[in-house]
Amino acid sequence: MTQGPVQLDVSVSYGLPRAGLPAAVSFRRWAAAAAQGRILRADLAIRLVDAKEGRALNRHYRGGDYATNVLSFPAELPEGVNLPLLGDLVICAPVVAKEALDQGKPLSAHYAHLTVHGVLHLLGLDHEDEREAEAMEQLERDILAGLGLPDPY
Question: What is the pLDDT of the chain when averaged over all its residues?
């Protein structure tokens, strides 16, 4: 764990109409909460996309021929390049909206959860086995509780 406030430069772009989507300031707050105590400084890009773009990105980079809720792309810098690039998150708005509705969750709380989840992936956390999944889920619960949000699970 690192000490002090995180310096996080978050660029948020919208690849679809912004109506009904959280403002960039919300994504910045959620990402900063996930990064707090884990890194001191980082640059992060978050892009909100429609189902077509989400599906194309998932197919190209992950091999899944469907739109998924969030994709995390950790920065891969050449050796010797020392920049504070954390990576990119791609969030598919129609998938998030459907999941929130199906799961009976407030839409903004689901966006917050997926942003936190994605940032934790960029920081190297994973859920490949049961132990990792439990640890990551608990960390997500703690971060979201600190934001005044309910348990996403």
Answer: 94
Instruction: State the distance between the two ends of the chain, measured CA to CA, in whole angstroms.
Output: 25
Q: Which pLDDT score, from 0 to 100, does residue 62 have?
A: 95
| Class of residue 50 by CB neighbours under 10 A (exposed 0-12, middle 13-18, buried 19+) | middle
Q: How far is CA 70 from CA 9, 14, 19, 81, in A?
A: 19, 14, 19, 27
Name the amino acid, one letter, at 28.
R
Q: Quote the tokens at residue 18.
A: 């912004």
**Between β-strands 85-92 and 70-74, what pairing exists: parallel, antiparallel or unpaired?**
antiparallel
Cα(98)–Cα(149) distance, integer angstroms: 19
Q: Tell me, what DSSP letter sits at residue 44?
A: E
Concatenated DSSP letters of 65-130 = SS--SEEEEE--PPTT----EEEEEEEEHHHHHHHHHHHT--HHHHHHHHHHHHHHHHTT---SSH
pTM, two decimal places: 0.93
Sequence-distant (6+) residues with CB within 8 A of 130 are none
Rounded-to-integer distance, Cα 57 and Cα 60, Å: 5
- The dihedral sign for the CA sequence 66, 67, 71, 73: positive
Q: CA 55, 115, 37, 40: dihedral to nearest 10 degrees?
A: 60
